Amino acid sequence: MSTRVRFAPSPTGHLHMGNVRTALFNYLFARNMRGTLILRIEDTDFERSTKESENLIYEDLKWIGIKWDEGPYIDDKSGKICINGNFGPYRQTERLHIHKKYVEQLLSKGKAYKCFCTKKRLEDMKKKAISNGRPPRYDRTCLNLSDNEIKAREDEGIKPSIRYKVDKDTVKIDDLIKGSITFNTNSFGDFIIVRPDGKPVYNFVVVIDDALMKITHVIRGDDHLSNTPKQVLIYESLGFNIPLFAHIPMILGPDHTKLSKRHGDMSLDTFKKTGYLPEALLNYLSLLGWSDEKEREILTKEELIASFSLDRVSKSAAIFDVDKTKWFNGLYIRKLETDVLTQLCIPYLMSTGLIDNNYIESSYTKLKEMIASIADNLQLLSHISEYIKVYFEFDDSDLDEEAHKMLQLGTSKHVLSYFLEELEGKEEISIDEYKKMVQHVKERSHVKGKALYMVIRIGVTGKMTGPELEKLVTIIPVPELKRRVSIIIKNILED
Q: Is the domain of 166 the same as that of 232?
């Protein structure tokens, strides 16, 4: 039978990094096995689920490069939501009539029963069990109600929940990552599969949907491990084939606690807006809980697909390292062609007001040169505005202490004065011409090294760090270079 896996998010907002990693592992496994990836929308959280959030899921997956084979999607041409696949509907709210059919089957087989216990009674029972050091387990008060007793309660308007009748002491699974695990059913007892309001619960509907969609492997976070024995019992009671389970390790923050909002906004959209590249994020996320057999870290999507296997997935939790993520992103930024990088940077530059459409039309080539000169410094696209400011802004009042120290050298005024003289009569400066100019300054001032090059840098930019000096001098217009050096000489060196 061909491999079929699924990613089943709830449409309550942008995808969280943990969800994206789960989607990625399912995608890589499906592609490696030449199988099928199904996208199923678990929208039974009626209070929080929205169509808008559903659309965000499609956009997030598309942006990072995870393509599914079956499920709903937004058609690029029409903008409408379409369906691909023969195992739908692919939204849980559209499958409630299917779920109801299987509830009836369990009731008729005696594998489930109606429970009329009030919320207060159940809470009191739970508190008592915990106070006595026992797991909170239902006491089966409603298990053997007669038909008359059930009818009497229903005639009173009491709406029952439906409980699954657990008739096994243990449930054993052979997890593809965790290994063999035996669960004692005494820890949870008869569990609810349908609430009093008639809505089926997750542990029930996920079994029905996975079984009918012929899912062969359930790859999900190990926070779902405790749900597995309940789901296996339902599979067995309904005579469904039980899929293979693979519970992947959780992603933790740097403090080794579960990744959450206290570690910052971990939604994929935030990383996208901050200026991460989808290829870099996909590569980094693949290494959270999985390792390449050849110990490579930088892998293309095609290389990841070819290399991915569940037996290389770790049992231990993975740590999300923001600094490492930025490092990955910087590597991928440096791989980009200048034209591509420029187009990606333009929205950030426009949002900060450094450029506008007129500037792009009139000075695009110059803009490309600027961006190319600072590409090696970028870790995030959003950093572009800060790095490129050196070409647009100059403030001699913003010199730091180290810059002031360099300018206080007895030779600094001579260096800048000679450099200013070299600028006279020039309209543009090539790299070769710049080198000749600096050589002339060096010969006239008898200064070399940091006292020469750093002082010129400060005179040109007011900063001690930034793009290579030869790129700065060849990109910044000569009149602006002269203005800046003159300001430093007048305001700093002649005070």
A: yes
- Please indicate, yes or no, whether residues 208 and 113 belong to a single structural domain of this protein: yes
pLDDT band at residue 395 under the 50/70/90 scheme:
confident
> Average pLDDT of 2-23?
94
Q: Of the residues 389, 407, 430, which one is the last residue of a structural domain? A: 389
340-352 average pLDDT score: 96
45 is written with which tokens? Answer: 């959280």
Secondary structure of residue 319 in the 3-state scheme? strand
CA–CA separation, 96 vs 111, rounded Å?
20
Contact present, 279 and 334 (Cβ < 8 Å) = no
Confidence of residue 401 (pLDDT cuts 50, 70, 90): confident
Mean model confidence pLDDT for the chain: 93
SS3 for 114-165 is: EECCCHHHHHHHHHHHHHCCCCCCCCCCCCCCCHHHHHHHHHCCCCCEEEEC
Same-domain pairing of 49 and 130: no
Higher pLDDT, 395 or 181: 181
pLDDT value for 264: 65
Q: Which structural domain, as residue segments, surrounds residue 144?
A: 95-248
Would you call 189 helix, strand, or coil by DSSP?
A: coil
Q: 203 near 231, Cβ under 8 Å? A: yes
Burial 306-328, CB ≥16 within 10 A → b, else e: ebbebeebeeebbebeeeebbeb
Residues in the chain: 495
For residues 58 and 114, membership in a common domain is answered with: no
Q: What is the mean pLDDT of residues 58-63?
A: 96
In a domain, 324, yes or no: no
Would you place residue 491 in the very low, low, confident or very high pLDDT band (cuts 50, 70, 90)? confident
Burial 105-140 (b: 16+ CB within 10 A, else e): ebeeeebbbbbbbeeeebeebeeebeeeeeeebbee
SS3 of residue 218 by DSSP: strand
Number of domains in the chain: 4
* CA nearest to 278, candidates 133, 471, 64: 64
Q: Are residues 105 and 244 in the same domain?
A: yes
Of 264, 291, 319, which residue constitutes the final position of a domain? Answer: 319
For every residue of 4-57, DSSP letters joined together read EEEE---SSSSPBHHHHHHHHHHHHHHHHTT-EEEE-B----TTT--HHHHHHH
Nearest to 245 by CA among 221, 262, 264, 263: 221
Residue 161 in tokens: 């929940």
By the 8 A CB rule, do 173 and 245 touch? yes
Domain harbouring 9, CATH code: 3.40.50.620
Kindly report whether the peptide bond that precedes residue 89 is cis, defined as omega within 30 degrees of 0: yes
Helices 412-423 and 431-445 sit at what angle, rounded to 10 degrees?
140
With a cut of 70, say whether residue 74 has pLDDT above it. Answer: yes
Examine residue 158 and state whether it is found in any structural domain, yes or no: yes
